[in-house]
Amino acid sequence: MAKYETKNEEGETCEAKYLIVKAEMGGILDLLKLLVLNGGRVHEFVESSEVDGDGGGEWDSGGHRWVIVVSVIMRRIIGILGKPMEGTGMVIEFLLNLLDLNGGIYGLFLNLIKGNVVRPERGSDTYISAIGHLDSRLDLCREVSFLNLVGLDTGGKCGDRALMDLCILASKLAYENANVVENIIVHRWKMHFVEFFNCWNDYQKKRSTQVFILSDKPKDATLVLISFRGTEPFDADDWSTDVDYSWYEIPKLGKVHMGFLEALGLGNRAQISTFQNYLQPKNQANKDTAYYAVKSKLESLLHDHKDAKFVVTGHSLGGALAILFPVVLLLHDEHELMKRLLAIYTFGQPRVGDENLVSFMKAQLCEPMPRYFRAVYCNDIVPRLPYDDSTFLYKHFGLCLYYNSLYSEQNVEEEPNRNYFGLRYLIPEHLNAVWELIRCLMISHVYGPEYEEGWFSIFIRVFGLFMPGVSAHSPRDYVNCVRLGRGRIQMDSI
């Protein structure tokens, strides 16, 4: 096995530390041996800097091998379903847009008779994603000014909640194509669209990381917002990244999720040395990747708008990238940029690193005043990934805004049922899914037509009866959390 070198905090050369769970290696019998045989070797499934002479390592114990098995099985299933998922997603999105543009089933029938069916055009400013059809709300709170939004004259929860409302809608908007994003920002939000980035992932060998930037106005802006796209429902690579347990240790910071680093364009597990190269602050390669493209544009914007501060946000995978972006800024000693950071808001974000990363970032973003807020809705499974134990070391940090199925908010250090496993949670999770289905049929009568759920959203609630943790990941519930949770924005009283 090749050995790779990196540099520690003192600039000394040392061996790079990493662990890669390789889902494509070994067969069914190898998995069974790994799971049931004591002392079974895991080198078929793991490439690591810590492998010993027998093919094992500190992570090779009976109490932890099952985590590797689960990861391998899940990623293999996702890999098998990858093409069908992609095809199904394209068909579903096309049909949803076809019905929407033609006024529903009845309107489509009439247009078929008249011969003037409106055909959806993928990539146009009217072609909406599956996430957008789950929740079509994109209007901001009408009476909130940007002066309130950035908290310059409120100093209280109103400004925080207004900003949080913008962040969840921007996180949801990030799932749309560039034309939809620009159209919404300019014509509905009356803000300035800066740029949409479709960035290269060197490991996946495709442009799989999307992010957009807006400012409140084109001149003398006071706010710049960066929104990363999250896990797309029918993208197998996104889901495989979420359940991956591979990590790379960055000297000074700690162990960081390898898939999320790759999504930012900061390395490629096929060649471990690329992480060291791409994480160099003066690196001139891969300027077409998310971290360097966004950083370059942000520097330009903050130079042009002397009074502006910036916010980073994202849902799901986008939330992981939203917190890792300032992590790498700090690694690169971009202290002047970080002074202009107003806040980070993530929604349904997976874990990104170990306790060392947690300690480092707490000192930077959580003290003396918190600038990082992590919203978690009820039984959402993604914030419970990757698995948190003494082997894989993944931990959360930051203020957790936890919402139960009544959208009641609690400020906690960690969401309940942090690993989403255990028989004692099984029945409550499914009973809660039943309640969520009932709630979705009643909510518009309680809170108004804005909260009415369409047939596609109701279908996802039905699916949640079988997989509650997946259905609870919908951005719709996060919009409801912000607007109906404790301390929510009262639109008619601002």
Automatic annotation (TrEMBL):
Q: Which CDD domains match?
A: Lipase_3
UniProt-listed Pfam families: Lipase_3 (PF01764)
The segment(s) forming the Fungal lipase-type domain are: 226-388
Q: Name one GO cellular component term.
A: lipid droplet
Q: Which Gene Ontology terms describe the biological processes this protein takes part in?
A: lipid metabolic process
- Molecular-function GO terms, alphabetical: diacylglycerol lipase activity; monoacylglycerol lipase activity; triacylglycerol lipase activity
Name the chain's protein.
Fungal lipase-type domain-containing protein
